[in-house]
């Protein structure tokens, strides 16, 4: 069974977007995964197709209504649907490569794209939504975040990447950032490819790449090194 993604959104025309191109697009065309955008407004009960209301307790902005969202979720993910229900939210748990791999190994996902000031907490609890964040910043809505999540997942599906091993050597797979990469020409504006990479000594190359990855991670993401050390200590 192929990976099945359903995206609940106020802007279904944003999908597939970039996911219709390159690796993800070819995989979509080949049936390795499927994508169904669902218009949330179709589940509003009034003639104006209202999906939001003012926040209880006062404050700026609007909040997406629990009743409308519940109907949309129940339509997209009826009882017995094994797919996780995700809510793209800046207050969610950070998306990690480990979580991406878990999702890629599953049957798919139902993804709710929030808008305005957020989503009524009651529907989050009542429908078991897993809040997911793609970074410590605010977007105008959950759609760009959903595209990011799906791109990360789809490329890991069987047969999508030409060389499956390439996914094992990337940033975060080993708990480190990826080492620097080089290719021809041998000399570019006076800068040469490091000699070790053209030495043919695979042990030296592997050691150099590991050292470079550790140096980059220590410089740019020391939190990753700390987490890796903590895991090693507890393990």
From TrEMBL:
S-adenosyl-L-methionine binds at residues 114, 134-139. Pfam families: tRNA_m1G_MT (PF01746). The keyword Methyltransferase applies. InterPro entries: Alpha/beta_knot_MTases (IPR029028), tRNA_m1G_MeTrfase_C_sf (IPR023148), tRNA_m1G_MeTrfase_TrmD (IPR002649), tRNA_m1G_MTases_N (IPR029026), tRNA_MeTrfase_TRMD/TRM10 (IPR016009). GO terms for biological process: methylation. Residues 4-225 form the tRNA methyltransferase TRMD/TRM10-type domain. It comes from the Bacteria. Its EC number is 2.1.1.228. GO terms for molecular function: tRNA (guanine(37)-N1)-methyltransferase activity. Keywords: Cytoplasm, Methyltransferase, S-adenosyl-L-methionine, Transferase, tRNA processing. It catalyses: guanosine(37) in tRNA + S-adenosyl-L-methionine = N(1)-methylguanosine(37) in tRNA + S-adenosyl-L-homocysteine + H(+). It is found in: Cytoplasm. SUPFAM superfamilies: alpha/beta knot (SSF75217). HAMAP family: TrmD. Belongs to the RNA methyltransferase TrmD family. Homodimer. Specifically methylates guanosine-37 in various tRNAs. This is tRNA (guanine-N(1)-)-methyltransferase. The gene is trmD.
């Amino acid at each position: 069974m192929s990976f099945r993604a359903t995206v609940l959104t106020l802007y279904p025309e944003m999908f597939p977007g970039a996911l219709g191109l390159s690796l993800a697009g070819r995989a979509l065309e080949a049936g390795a995964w499927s994508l169904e955008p669902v218009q949330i407004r179709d589940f509003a009960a009034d003639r104006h197709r209202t999906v939001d209301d003012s926040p209880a307790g006062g404050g700026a902005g609007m909040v997406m209504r629990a009743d409308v969202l519940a109907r949309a979720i129940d339509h997209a993910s009826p009882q017995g649907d094994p797919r996780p229900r995700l809510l793209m939210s800046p207050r969610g748990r950070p998306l990690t490569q480990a979580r991406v791999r878990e999702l890629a190994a599953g049957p798919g996902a139902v993804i709710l794209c929030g808008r305005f000031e957020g989503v009524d907490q009651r529907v989050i609890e009542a429908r078991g939504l897993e809040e997911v964040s793609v970074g410590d910043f605010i977007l105008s809505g959950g759609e760009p975040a959903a595209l990011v999540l799906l791109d990360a997942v789809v490329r890991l599906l069987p047969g999508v990447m030409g060389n499956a091993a390439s996914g094992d050597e990337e940033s975060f797979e080993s708990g480190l950032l990826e080492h620097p990469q080089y290719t021809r020409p041998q000399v570019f504006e006076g800068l040469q490819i490091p000699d070790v990479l053209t030495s043919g000594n695979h042990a030296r190359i592997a050691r150099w790449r590991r050292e470079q990855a550790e140096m980059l991670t220590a410089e740019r993401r020391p939190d990753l090194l700390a987490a890796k050390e903590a895991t090693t200590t507890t393990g």
